[in-house]
Amino acid sequence: MKEENALPVFPESGLPRNQIYCMDYLELSRRLPDGSVSMILTDPPYGIGYHNSFASCPHPPIAGDDGIDYGHLARESWRILQEDAHAYFFTRFDCYPYHYSCLKEAGFSIKNCLVVEKGTVGGIGDLQGSYANNSEWIIFCQKGRRTFSRTTLLQNRKKEGSRYHAGREASKKYKTRFNACWFGGEYPKATCNSTWQKKHRIRHPTIKNAVFLSWLIQISSQPGELVFDGFMGSGSTAVAAALCGRDYLGAEICPEYFEMAQERIAQSMKGVESRCQRSSLYGATPAAGSPCSAAASPRC
Ligand SMILES: C[S@@+](CC[C@H](N)C(=O)[O-])C[C@H]1O[C@@H](n2cnc3c(N)ncnc32)[C@H](O)[C@@H]1O
């Protein structure tokens, strides 16, 4: 869908929904009115020249990885996000200070840095003299203030209705508070490993687990709201939004990844990923170890 010049400035009442455009994110975002999206969840290239030459199936370098204008990205993100809304930006320990300062300067209030276990240990690089990178970092920030949505993602260990201290609110069946560090069987992993990618014939060097993203979306938005990702890659954010009944909008500049995203969305709507997630997203938490449980989903 290479039709940058054909795209109009979208009226607030008629934003496209459930669309990915094969174009530069800036081209798309400048067509969006101020405050028109309900949540941003994005994974931009870090500008570090990432190239995994250790993978069994090497990927070409990622577009934009020689540096995007992060200050501009931060300001555009702030502009298109509605008031009282959440934004998540994937980052890395060495880019974190720069990303943090750009987002803060743009106006965001930075609340946390989430640290989430990867689906595979990043077992590359100097492992004799450095630690393997087994987590993803995600800057969590707000425009205005929004409280977490009620979800059925994690059950409380304490029985519903019990009280920790006299005078405190009784415990709910599902957790309303979340830790910033997601490790262990309770939580989905942040990335899809190579076995999953091979099985689903979806290969992207920085692919994220749609189940994990759907948790963030459920926590930070309501059904029917619009989630924006200007760097869709293999379409993980779109799949995640669709799985939990939210709308998505975004861009991917690389035609091969754009096609992959379309294919993945179509697959997930009819496949196992969809069936499992629909049951766990809308109903009760699936039993531990079932193909639909968070403990089982790290395969993805
Ligand atoms: C880190 S990857 C995102 C991976 C994605 N989260 C996934 O799960 O597959 C960044 C993506 O942004 C794309 N990209 C780079 N520069 C871009 C730009 N200016 N506009 C839109 N997409 C861009 C790259 O082709 C790459 O697929």
Ligands, deduplicated:
S-adenosylmethionine
Main sheet record = 8 strands, mixed
Shape: globular
The end-to-end distance, rounded to whole angstroms, is 28 Å
Give me the strand/helix succession.
Answer: EHEHEHEEEHHEHEHH
Name the strands of the widest sheet in spatial order.
1-8-7-2-3-5-4-6
| Share of helical residues | 25-40%
CATH homology group: Vaccinia Virus protein VP39
Counted up, domains total 1
CATH class call? Alpha Beta
CATH T-level topology = Rossmann fold
Strand content: 15-25%
Record field, number of beta strands: 8
SS class? alpha/beta
- Total DSSP helices: 8
Regions with pLDDT < 50 over 5+ consecutive residues?
272-300
**What is the level-2 CATH architecture name?**
3-Layer(aba) Sandwich
What value does the Rg take, in angstroms? Answer: 19 Å
Mean pLDDT: 84
Give an overview in words.
The chain is of the alpha/beta class and 300 residues long. The protein has a single domain, classed as 3-Layer(aba) Sandwich (Rossmann fold), CATH 3.40.50.150. It is built from eight helices and eight strands, in the order E-H-E-H-E-H-E-E-E-H-H-E-H-E-H-H. The protein has an eight-stranded mixed β-sheet, with helices on both faces. The longest helix has 16 residues, at 255-270. The structure holds S-adenosylmethionine. The site of S-adenosylmethionine (SAM) has 22 residues, from loops.
